[in-house]
Amino acid sequence: MVQEEAILKLPNGTEHRIKARKDTAAAKPIFGGRSILPALQGVCLYRGYSVPDLVDQAQALEDGVAYLLLVGEKPSVAQLAEFRKEIQKHMLVHEKVKAMFSNFTINAHPMAIMVAVIGALSCIFSELDPLDEEHRWLACKRLIAKVPVLACWAYKTSIGQPMMYPRADLSFAENFLYMMFATPMEEYQVNPVAAKAINAFMILHMDHEQNASTSTVRIAGSSQANPYACIAAGVASLWGPAHGGANEAVIKMLEEIGVPENVPNFVADVKAKKEGVRLMGFGHRVYKNYDPRAKVMKGLVAQVLQELGIEDPLLKVAQELEKVALADDYFVQRKLYPNVDYYSGIMLRALGIPTSMFTVMFAMSRTVGWVSQWNEMVSEGQMRIGRPRQLYVGPKERKWSESKARRGGSPVDRGGVRKRASLKRFEEGKELV
Ligand code: CMC
């Protein structure tokens, strides 16, 4: 690490010099994180491999994309077989955690359930030592294996259906669909088009450098907190519409627009910055050109809808909105393009996934990135506690003085008055004490 100084200039002209840690490895953001970059050039890579290529050619868990993110290299045949076996084994969820689900109300948002149950895994695995390499590896595998199960159980709970256990004979994507849609009453056939789409969604969302949720996981982990609790913190951070909640918000926005003819009015409201109106699924802190993941997602939507023989009227609204926005100076000047969340919801709708599960699926996929980054942070000795510096601009030191007048008499006086009044009313038979 090279020590450097960053100079922060406030609008009032004051300057603050802050020690900054600059990584010496190539093209890495402050926190490290090897899985992705260089996003600035509009390229999206996991450990050097093109994400669109991975989506095209690989299966998320079965072909070792998750392993690649975790370890840094493609697994050998033996390593992959071992990894798959381990993940399968860890898909079983402790019955005590399963019992928790019965306490959530029907209609509870599945993201609310996810924050609670992932955090609750730390009750079961509280002995874990984050500084022990074997413990860390175990925690990573457990989380990758269990979060998809918890995700499906969150959905089943929210609709009041029995929770389905994963099956050893199914792939990750097949298992996900099975646990979401099967019931104990009849046999469930997994649609291969749907399984392919789920696999693609998973790979596209696995990691993306220092976004809000990943940085949250790193900051929580920097205190050596239990990793299950750290991942729960990541889920909470992901939930909002500016981050992972955008996929759900896009569908709400498209439904509100309703038909392509309403697009110009909506765009006018966005440009006027009308309160609460934003073009959801557009814009990105890093990509100032078309998000490469969005390009893949757009292609997938067309393919999935065609293969399933579905026509979604919202797709026409989304296409028109994209066309109008990309031709408009407001979006051109600010370099606002569709991001990964813009089209993903339309694909998930076609698979019958309810809107409330979109962000949960993002969390399930991003868990791979979160645990990889957490593990990297600890193993590379980047464990200095996260402590953003606060620049205080409030009043200087001053004295607190309390007066009886401000309080309006002592609490004892007021209590006594109330009690005497209440007793009087009781004696008059007007109140039960
Ligand atoms: N619609 C309208 N105006 C926008 C949008 C948008 N989606 N995004 C940015 N702007 C405007 C913003 O108002 C600002 O305008 P001005 O210069 O007049 O003040 C300008 O563009 C620069 O934006 P910013 O606020 O500095 O951008 P940011 O880097 O802070 O925010 C963002 C990035 C993704 C939060 C934002 O673009 C946004 O809210 N997008 C919609 C929500 C969304 O799709 N989120 C998913 C992000 S990608 C997946 C993920 O990581 O979760």
Automatic annotation (TrEMBL):
Residues 396-405 have a biased composition (Basic and acidic residues). Residues 396-418 are annotated as: Disordered. Pathway: Carbohydrate metabolism; tricarboxylic acid cycle; isocitrate from oxaloacetate: step 1/2. Keywords: Transferase, Tricarboxylic acid cycle. It holds the Pfam family Citrate_synt. It comes from the Eukaryota. Belongs to the citrate synthase family. This is Citrate synthase. It comes from Durusdinium trenchii.
